[in-house]
Amino acid sequence: MLEGKAIIGETDMLQTVQQDALDLAAKALDFYDVTEPTEIARFIKKEFDRDYGGGWQCIVGTDFGSFVTHCYGSFIHFCIGSLAILLFRGSTGQDSNPNLFSTMETLEA
Prior knowledge:
Protein Inhibitor Of Neuronal Nitric Oxide Synthase; Dynein_light_chain_typ-1/2; alpha+beta; microtubule; 4-stranded antiparallel beta sheet; globular; 109 residues
């Protein structure tokens, strides 16, 4: 495991869910080496899918950028040492206007 305290960059999760994310990351780092970011991400994602329902995405690495759409209350970005972890539940954005395409077709007619 990487030594050091997790530093949360951004989050909109409840405190208890944040703590679950941090605990799972620590557990993943007990099982996998820091050179296996895909395995770490898979572990965290599968555990969150099991505990909180499907649709979670996890990105782990030392150098990455992102621009994501997520469900409210389901985003966290934190670092443990040099390893950054981004965990979020994806959103399709369709909730805001489920009839977007039918509206567009009506306008074109």
